[in-house]
Amino acid sequence: MLAGAALITWQSLGYFDSEELPPFVIEKLQQSLRFEALWMAALRVHVASAIVTFPLCLLLMTRPLQRRPLWHRWIGRATGTLVLFALVPSGVVLAFEAKGGPAVSAGFLLSAVIVGWGIVHGVVTARRRDLVAHQRAMRHVVAQMSVAVTSRTMILALDARGVDPAVAYVIALWVPVLGSALVAELVSSRFIWNRARSLVVDRTVRAERSRREVFP
């Protein structure tokens, strides 16, 4: 994912060059967008915030940073603020003009809703010290942000097989969006099950110790 994020960052630098725009941007501007200035501003905000927040989200999922609560808290707050107030709103604006039509727009909007819910729910659960629920919400955030990498990979694979671009865009968006949500939920369920099982085992051990103390 870090390698994919680095590649996307390198490919996206052209979005900030006002003199030589990438072919994708030129193609969109030639389609007579209803709000051209707003779309261009949203694109740059979205790309800039994604370049910063996706690697930080991956970093926040690592054990070394999770073992440093102070660093994790402040990096998490900064990242969450950027995601909630820059990445998600700009993504919503871009979704309505997404290549591939309403089906692709709906997929982007669903992904934005999941990310927004994950950030808000993650903050609430962190403040309640419910770390299990916090981790589950953050897995969904990272999973949806990883769609940028998996979706582009699928587009290249489908294009190599000669799939119609209109169909490829729909497949390459919906499969990663739904698949990432499913994987995040399955991983979270496994962690919750293991935690519940460890609690049951711990209670059984303590009950046995207590019984032996009462009846030596």
Structural features, described:
The protein has 216 residues and is mainly alpha-helical. It has one domain. Helices cover 83% and strands 0% of the residues. It contains nine helices and no strands. It has helices at 2-12, 23-29, 36-60, 63-66, 69-95, 102-127, 131-145, 147-160, 165-214.
Keywords:
216 residues; single chain; 9 helices; mainly alpha
Q: N-to-C SSE series?
A: HHHHHHHHH
Low-confidence stretches: none
- The secondary-structure class comes to mainly alpha
Tell me the Rg in angstroms: 21 Å
Structure summary, number of beta strands: 0
Strand residue percentage: under 5%
Domain count: the total is 1
Largest sheet: none
Question: Number of helix segments?
Answer: 9
Helix content: over 70%
Cα(first) to Cα(last) distance is 56 Å
Oligomer: single chain
SSE layout and pairing:
Layout: H1 2-12, H2 23-29, H3 36-60, H4 63-66, H5 69-95, H6 102-127, H7 131-145, H8 147-160, H9 165-214
Helix pairs in contact: 1-3, 3-5, 3-7, 5-6, 6-7, 6-9, 7-9, 8-9
Summarize the structure.
The protein has 216 residues and is an all-alpha fold.
